User: Fold this.
Amino acid sequence: MRSLKCIVVVACGLLLSACKTFSPDGGMTLVSAATEEAIQKNVVAVRDADDERGASEVVRRLLRRPLSAEAAVQVALLNNRGLQAAFSELASAEAQMVESSLPPSPTFSLLRLASSAELEIERKIVADILSLATLPARADIAADRFLQAQYRAIAETLRVATEARRAYYRAVAARESAGALAQAKLAAGAASELAGKLGATGAMNKLDQAREHVFYAEVSAQSATAQQRIASERERLIRALGLWGNDLGFRLPNALPALPPRIQALPSVEVEAVRRRVDVRIARIELDLMAKSASLTQATRFLNLLELAGISKTTREAGSSPVHARGVEAEFQIPLFDFGEARVRQAEEKYRAALHLLAEKAVNARSEAREAYVAYRSSYEIAVHYQREILPLRKIIAEETQLRYGAMQIDDFALLVEARQRLAAIGTAIEAKRDFWLRKTDVLNAVLGGAAAASNDSPAPMSAPESRAGGH
Assistant:
């Protein structure tokens, strides 16, 4: 009996060591640390009124000033409701982990049979011994599942940050394009009005008047389209940030940030992607899970049901004293037809599938990181080329064209053609600068969270239709 008690005590200690407990923050420690390391931002799981007030105060403080890209990302991480839903799912995954680490509850049954000649009472308590024996292994698997859920929450956090940053750059680029078109519209309107006055005096023929009027009409149409684009991009940004009500009055700058003097060199971008990408880490955890599950399946292939019951039975016949009996009942399954081969084969194939998926993730991570970095470098070179070469030359051409027009060396048609070309160059330069900031966001996402497809919703170039060349 003493040995049996020692065995019971040791078994209880092992079972209690396998049990998991709830963390104070619902598993957010790893998420917060990873977000701080990756993008230097704070995340908060809003679980009560105090959390809500704290996050709201930070959001309102950030929205009082003209919004920057970094501020927009921080607002999204604190205010995006879809992200908060992901944090709630993380807390639910922790609850599942704790539940999976608890020993199975015993079953108690009571049987009473009575007749005029006999009374029989049977009490039975049944425990699933196999579940108790495999509890440490199953608790270890449940802990890995929770770790996987934490990395999924990290991936969702990085995705929200990326979408907020991209939406910010698109919204500001729309404002900058609309500003350039507004200036062009003012100049074209003044020229159109002057053309009408000159035409009334006979100093300008109808063809030149029509050219001035149609240029103003074209720029006006483009300006209206740009205003609509501002509204659309702003709403997209609002959705990314999770704003509503009084928070919709936030201000955006009128132009994108200036290009940096040089781009960031990333000679080991492939290695960093394989080492740091969250989706690769999730695939690694999945491979470990499949290995542990396969080992557990192999260990229990011949025995998948083992229950032990303690029985206490009382029998009393008429005219006699009651008889008490105690005993033990074991129930197990005899594998006559199923030796667990199918379960073992299935577990092995799941492991192989996880191994192939991890290899695929690693290969794709390298390729996507290379692609994002090449696009980042190319977009910088294109944007710098427009800022340093094309726009200055366009300015010189505009000034020289104006001088020659004032000296009556060229006609209105040449002046309008140059105005159209310069307007197109300005619009393309703004788009090139916007694309650089988007590609920089893609590089960060390709290294940390997973590749994001390049934006295919770029607005049309800010240029008026070219007039057909004709005689002067």
